[in-house]
Amino acid sequence: MTTIFAILLVFVGCCSNVVFLELLVREFPGCGNIVTFAQFAFIALEGFIFETKCGRKKPAIPISNYVIMVTMFFTVSVINNYALNFNIAMPLHMIFRSGSLIANMILGIVILKKRYSMSKYLSIVLVSLGIFICTIMSAKQVKTAKKGSEELDVNVFLHWLIGIAMLTFALLMSARMGIFQETLYKKYGKHSKEALFYNHFLPIPGFLLLSSDIYNHCVLFSQSTPVDVPVIGQSVPVMWLYLLMNVITQYICIRGVFILTTECTSLTVTLVVTLRKFMSLIISILYFKNPFTAWHWLGTAIVFLGTLIYTEVWTSICVAMRGKEELKEKKV
Question: Which UniProt keywords apply (predicted)?
Answer without folding.
Answer: Membrane, Sugar transport, Transmembrane, Transmembrane helix, Transport
